[in-house]
From TrEMBL:
Residues 165-260, 265-356 form the Link domain. It is found in: Secreted, Extracellular space, Extracellular matrix. Coiled coil: none annotated. GO terms for cellular component: extracellular space; perineuronal net; synapse. The gene is HAPLN3. GO terms for biological process: cell adhesion; central nervous system development; glial cell differentiation; positive regulation of neuroblast proliferation; skeletal system development. This is Hyaluronan and proteoglycan link protein 3. Its main location: secreted. Disulfide bonds join 211-232, 285-354, 310-331.
Length: 358
C-alpha cells in the first residue's frame, strides 16, 4: 500500500475543487464506512464492491467462478494498487474464516487446500472474481471477497453450494435395515453422502417421490411424496416432505437418502459381446482400465451428463440399474430416471457400467 498513499493525496487535490464539501471553509477528511453494503467513500471517491450473484451452485469436479467486481466512482484515470483478498467460511462446522488467496497486481498467493486451485478471473478491470478449479468435496460455504485500498476495505459475500442429485438407497439385506451410521456408510460407499433436508426438499420440488423413509444427515428420517396416495401415508395428506422427526441413531432403522455432486471421470456402459455375471463384470471394467461404477456415479452421470442407456448393467454394490434421460417404450416408466432391478444374485448375466477417471 506504499504506492497508494501519494495517489490518495493527489486525488484529494484534484477532487477537492468539484466533489468535496467544506465545513467552515475547511475540508474535513472523514471516511464514512457504509457498514458492509459494499461501498466506502474516501476523499470523495467511492469504492463499490459488488457481486451479481449472492449464491452460486456448481458440480463437484468441475470449475466455478465466484463473481466479485469493484469500481471507483467517479472513475479514476490512473490505475490503483488494489489488493484483493478472498476468505472462506466452511459450510460444515463453524470456526474462523480461512484465507483462500490474496492478490496485489500480478502477484498472488493461495493458501491451504486452495493452493494451486484458485486464481482471479481478471477478465476486465475491476474483476476480482475467484475461479476454483477443480471444485473439491469440502469447498462449500461462504466466500468473502475483500477489496483493500490503502487503509480501507470493503467486501461482499457469495455462497457456494453443490448442485447435486439425491437418490434413495437401501441395504442389500432389505428395506429399513440401516442404522444412522450404516446409512451414512452406505452412501459413502456409493460415492455420495447423506443428503441434507434442503437437498431432499430441492429434489422433492424437482419431482422425487419415494414412499420409504430414509435417514438424512441431521438424524431425522423423512420421505418426499408429490402424489399423495393410500399406500404412502394416505390420500388426504398434502404433498410434501414427510418427517418422522429425529430418530434414535442406533435403535431405529430406515433406508437412506444419499446426495452426490461429483462428475469426476466418465461413466459408461461397457460394450461387450457377452452378458456377464457380477464377478465377470468387475473383471471386465478393470481390463478396460476402469472400475465398476458406484450407484452415486451412475446417478451423477444420468443427471449431469445426460447418460441414457436402455441396457441393464451391474454396479459395484451388486445392484442392476440403467439410466434413462429420454423415456421411450420398453425402457421403463414415462419419466426420466435411473431404473433399478434391485440387488440380484451374482450369477445372473447382465451388462456392466464402468467408471473411468480421466
Ligand atoms: C470450466 O467449466 C466450463 C463449463 O462449466 C468449461 O466449458 C470450461 O472448459 C472449464 N474450464 C476449465 C479451465 O476447466
Ligand atoms: C461367473 O462366471 C465365472 C466363469 O466365467 C465363474 O468362474 C464365476 O464363479 C461366476 N461367478 C458367479 C458369481 O457366478
Amino acid at each position: 500500500m506504499r504506492i497508494a498513499r501519494p495517489l490518495l493525496v493527489l486525488l484529494h487535490v484534484v477532487l477537492e475543487t468539484r466533489a468535496l464539501r467544506y465545513s467552515n471553509g475547511y475540508y474535513y477528511q472523514t471516511i464514512e464506512n457504509s457498514k458492509g453494503n459494499g461501498e466506502i467513500y474516501f476523499n470523495g471517491v467511492r469504492l463499490h464492491v459488488e457481486s451479481p450473484q449472492m449464491s452460486v451452485s456448481a458440480i463437484q469436479g468441475s470449475n466455478v467462478t465466484l463473481p466479485c467486481h469493484y469500481r471507483y466512482e467517479p472513475e479514476l484515470s490512473a490505475p490503483r494498487r488494489t489488493r484483493v483478498k478472498w476468505f472462506w467460511q466452511p459450510a460444515t462446522g463453524e470456526g474462523r474464516e480461512k484465507d483462500v488467496m490474496v492478490a496485489l497486481g500480478s502477484r498472488h498467493r493461495s493458501y491451504g487446500g486452495f493452493r494451486g486451485r484458485v486464481r482471479l478471473r481478471r477478465s476486465v478491470p475491476g474483476d476480482a472474481s475467484l475461479v476454483i478449479n477443480p471444485l473439491q468435496v469440502d469447498d462449500t460455504g461462504r466466500y468473502r471477497c475483500e477489496i483493500i485500498d490503502g487503509l480501507e476495505d470493503e467486501s461482499v459475500t457469495v455462497e457456494l453450494e453443490f448442485r447435486g442429485v439425491v437418490f434413495p438407497y437401501y441395504s442389500p439385506r432389505g428395506r429399513y435395515q440401516l442404522t444412522y451410521q450404516e446409512a451414512k456408510e452406505a452412501c459413502e460407499q456409493q460415492g455420495a453422502c447423506l443428503a441434507t433436508f434442503q437437498q431432499l426438499f430441492a429434489a422433492y420440488e424437482e419431482g422425487l417421490d419415494w414412499c420409504n423413509a430414509g435417514w438424512l444427515a441431521d438424524g431425522t428420517a423423512q420421505y418426499p411424496v408429490s402424489v399423495p396416495r393410500e399406500a404412502c401415508g394416505g390420500k388426504e395428506l398434502a404433498p410434501g416432505v414427510r418427517s418422522y422427526g429425529l430418530r434414535h441413531k442406533t435403535l431405529d432403522q430406515f433406508d437412506a437418502f444419499c446426495f452426490t455432486s461429483s462428475i469426476r471421470g466418465e461413466v459408461y456402459f461397457l460394450e461387450h459381446p457377452l452378458k456377464l455375471n457380477f464377478t465377470e463384470a468387475v473383471e471386465v471394467c478393470m481390463q478396460d482400465g476402469a472400475h465398476i461404477a458406484k450407484v452415486g456415479e451412475l446417478y451423477a452421470a444420468w443427471k449431469f451428463v445426460g447418460l441414457d442407456q436402455c441396457n441393464a448393467g451391474w454396479l459395484a454394490d451388486g445392484s442392476v440399474r440403467y439410466p434413462i434421460t429420454r423415456p421411450r417404450p420398453n425402457c421403463g416408466p414415462p419419466d426420466p430416471g435411473v431404473r433399478s432391478f434391485g440387488f440380484l444374485p451374482h450369477h445372473l448375466k447382465y451388462g456392466v457400467y464402468c467408471h473411468k477417471v480421466r
